[in-house]
Amino acid sequence: MKIFHLPISKNRIYGLDILRALAILFVVYGHTIPFVIKVWPKKWLTIPVLDGVSIFFVLSGFLIGGILIKNFENKKATPSLLFNFWIRRWFRTLPNYFLVFGLLFIAQGLILNKTSFSDSWPYLFFSQNLFSSHPLFFPEAWSLSVEEWFYILIPILLMLFRKMKLSVKSSSLLLILLFLLGSLLIRYLRFEEIENVSFKEWDNLFRKQVFTRLDSIMFGLLGAWFFYYFKNFWVRNKKAFLVLGILFMALHKSLIYFRLDLGFTYNVYYCVWSFSLISLATLLFIPFLSEIKTGSGKIFRNISRISLISYSMYLVNLTLVQELILRALYKIWPLNYSQFTSLVYFALAWIFTILISILLYKYFEVPTTKLREKWAAKDS
Description:
By secondary structure, the protein is mainly alpha-helical. The chain has one domain. It has 16 helices and no strands. It has helices at residues 14-32, 42-46, 52-74, 79-112, 117-120, 141-163, 168-193, 199-207, 210-229, 231-236, 238-257, 268-289, 297-308, 310-316, 319-330, 339-370. Helix 1 (14-32) packs across helix 13 (297-308). The longest helix has 34 residues, at 79-112. It is globular and about 65 Å long.
């Protein structure tokens, strides 16, 4: 159908589309597992799942960090440079976010009577999980706060360092090291303060706060730094990096998968080091994948299409689709966790997520993104 047709630009890097598509598939799969965990063993279901959000963080840091380094190397560090960067970023991310936020705010307020402006206004400034636990409303938004504060802080700090006569190369590396060590230290000190960390504490105090997770994006910026300043080293060792990344990811997955069997629960690795290891492993995939420029056939087209709608899928898959649309269906056809109904709702969650995301991407995200050309300099 023409309404669902998505044109694919020739300028896209297919290898990075693969990584982005895998990330969103991991996220949606992780969110839809609850439909079937009572039918099949949970451990078996979680074997294919990696942390899609961490993968998104690293990929975002690599792509946006590359833009920042290039801009600061080629242009004068001025407020205009920052303004153009923010305009281009925010026209890409904010319209979709505020549209979905508004729909959820209205729907949950009118239908579920769950939200009020006094509880929700921090979402307008991405401050709802800056220093505290993320609220229950719109839980997907926690990672967007991490992304947006990266967009705000790093350009400002880069400009300040440039004003201090530091080179872009030195400034960006200094920022990378500060944030990598800073987030790690915050997580470690927090872990030392809490006795017997529970899942809720791990999720709210370690995984979903801005300053405990900014280092994941900085791993991506580290990749952009190597790509810009040491590209030959980056490309020459891409296969070795890929193998090392696979080994690190397998090690991370093994430590997570067997943690309960070994009596580790939410130990120091899980709370402090796991975020660093999965981010490093993801970074090591990028040199190899970034050299895969294109592909062919149906698999290529479908992976690229999933990549195109990945941001929309992230925004709608959980609260909008599962908490509002599917819960409305429960009143007609209750979810009794039989094999049949569980599989049907599992499939419906995917179908609604993909269809809504295609429409959102094609008829809202693309038109609003194009508006940035009227505000930002064309060469920014």
